[in-house]
């Protein structure tokens, strides 16, 4: 187990009707906030009215900035920064999914910074200050509700880049599983694929003697695998949603990578797909992850055997180690198919004409290879994309 420091400061407020406490939570930080949300799902579901009522009850003034798109755009972040500066706003409340939360985090680091916020996403600067952010989560998926991450798409060149800083852990996140009842089925499945991907990125590690976190990751994966089919069958199954929502937050709140180094190659390859083709992040991961596994399972066959046996119940005695490893990958693909996720680039609507461009963009022309479990250069990435074809 590697040395580590673990400190996740996000206060989680979990359960039915918890969104009605938002005004009270915000009032510890601010009297004037930016209310940031997406394309209108929160109005249709009635959540918007509840949030506004709670803010008014706590005498919190707010200016709204709706319109966050999935794969959130830099231009709206810049608009948000300007609104905060012009109006003396000192808190950003995100109501929505990972895209809204990531956009809110970007605004939060952009407001006190003298340069352009994109500097943070291109390694030109590191944030030293941020406005506090709070969230009400409406989709279990990205884990941004208690993560250090924000992923933003720059429309100028369609670069999708992550930035991580402890400064952007949300101060609080309200997680009411009932808020997920209105999700379109496709988004439920994309969310499940993303949560599994966050777990697998951490699982495939070269760090030794990490049994405790291995087993935590395995049980979190099993929780997703058991409960996502339940919510797809009955979208108002509170108990199953509660499992998925809490597992989704834990999958990405840094607890499960304590003492170990995660990989993150698949995520970075996927960011190229979302950046250029604007596909949903989770769907892109359902395509990339199995191909990544097929490309490099021989790097540590035992780990892939363990994945197959412990997570997918593959019965080891019937197969050779290699067959067992491959069975695990097949089971993962079958799970994605069973929840209507694509597992090929064609299924995502992506042709084979820009693989090299994506591989070069992802590695900065081979200056920064991707991943930690196995380092990937642009040629490897092209090969993985071909396997995903
Ligand atoms: O915009 P609205 O109208 O709200 O609709 C959204 C959007 O169309 C809809 N939706 C969300 N909650 C709903 C709902 N519709 C009905 N009922 C509800 N309760 O779902 C659509 C997708 O929303 P989005 O926020 O894009 O989904 P998700 O949470 O999957 O976020 C994806 C983004 O997060 C980034 C991804 O790259 C992607 O840009 N990630 C962020 C991470 C982080 N900050 O730590 C880590 C992740 O690996 C990921 O990269
Ligand atoms: Zn993700």
Automatic annotation (TrEMBL):
Swiss-Prot/TrEMBL keywords: Oxidoreductase
CDD domains assigned to the protein according to its UniProt record, in alphabetical order: BDH
Domain Alcohol dehydrogenase iron-type/glycerol dehydrogenase GldA: 9-177
GO MF annotation list: alcohol dehydrogenase (NADP+) activity; butanol dehydrogenase (NAD+) activity; metal ion binding; methylglyoxal reductase (NADPH) (acetol producing) activity
Domain Fe-containing alcohol dehydrogenase-like C-terminal: 193-387
InterPro entries linked: ADH_Fe/GldA, ADH_Fe_C, ADH_Fe_CS, BDH-like
Keyword Oxidoreductase included in the entry's annotation: yes
GO cellular component: cytosol
Top-level lineage group: Bacteria
One Pfam entry name: ADH_Fe_C
Protein's UniProt name: Uncharacterized protein
